[in-house]
Please model this.
Amino acid sequence: MWGVPMIVLLVGTHVYLTIRLRFPQRYLWKAIKLSFAKEKGSKGDVSAYGALFTALAATIGTGNIVGVSTAVALGGPGAVFWCWLTGVFGIATKYSEALLAVKFRVKTEKGEMLGGPMYALERGLHCKWLAVLFCIFTFLAAFGIGNMVQANAASQLLHTNYAVPEYITGIVMAVLTALVVFFGVKGIATTCTLIVPIMALFYVGSCIAILCINSSYVWDALCLIVKAAFNPQAAGAGFVGGTLAMTIRYGVSRGLFSNESGMGSAPIVAAAAKSRNPVRQALVSSTGTFWDTVVICALTGLVVVSTMLAHPEINGKEGTELISAAFNSIPHVGTLILTIGLFSFAFSTILGWSYYSEKATEYLGGSHTIRYYYVMWVIAIFAGSVLQLKVVWNFADCMNALMVIPNLISLLLLSNVLTKETSKYLWSNRLDKWNNSEMHISLMEREKRLRKIYKGE
Model:
């Protein structure tokens, strides 16, 4: 699944959209400021801020910790470079996904906003069958990347460090998740908005502390990451020194696993955001890839490689063991910090992906099927906690790849829509302008309110 064709398709799309959209990465600072702007009068279920942090909750998970460590263990230090590069160019893809999601979103009878690649495929390309395939792959991928992998990583770490039985961790996470998802997207967004900023700052601070401890090895680690990206054998004895294809494969696949640019998952919640035009929310969503991969994954990779240089005896260990060894560099509290961080990351990712899978389920079977989906979701958390790691990761990798294909098809075939909307709002400096359909909805709401006032209601 992750051979040369998939890597070329994914990275090629990242590069193509970057060039076609005139490097949207250069608007990063503007996008960050928009993340905290209030959208008064806009229609949507959650704020742009809430949508971003729900998406970040789904992306900032074990992929940033165990995923990057696994990439180093299997692909060598050079995999960190390809993971980081995937994030840099992936910003354009995440921008494009969110733009199409808001552009082609629909409003349900309950007044909720629904969108994502399935609606872009159905309404933009008129390919209902591809939309159905995407939802099937999303449903299956969610149980891998967004559920069992997260529960597995948390349960294994707690078992290794504190001898907590895996089934206990599974039960606790399942109960906590059930309590939150009952309140729908607003409950998920509220919880993620509270958890994500705190845990991200906590984790970044810990990584910086480790880099200070390994300060004499940081520059060597950075040089090694760049050299091994193009010549894996340059890593030297004790490090993985496989083929270049293997290094790129693990770097790109773990980069995707972490930031999800190209998978089409984050646009599902972006479509629920309050935004006056598609480009504004697209810019906000694109910052998720920056924070997730360009910042957090890069820090994790540098921490792992510098620790491997400082302590050669840990070379050859698996991903979880590598990151555990790195955090043990912090005296007394390192293990506790990693355990709390990973549990929080895993829990928030499960919440974010529960929404993605819920909307895929609703698209396939209608709203009445969601109650059965919730039961399956909670059971899968427990199952993932007690399964073998290799089985869970292989399943997740395959499902991720299957999600990518129909989503990238929509991005490539609707690239004219992307350039048109970007030109209309971003290149023309009209980000504050209302989209016609959004303005129409706003005026209708205003008319309804005036009628109620006139009738004395």
Remarks:
- The mean pLDDT is 84.
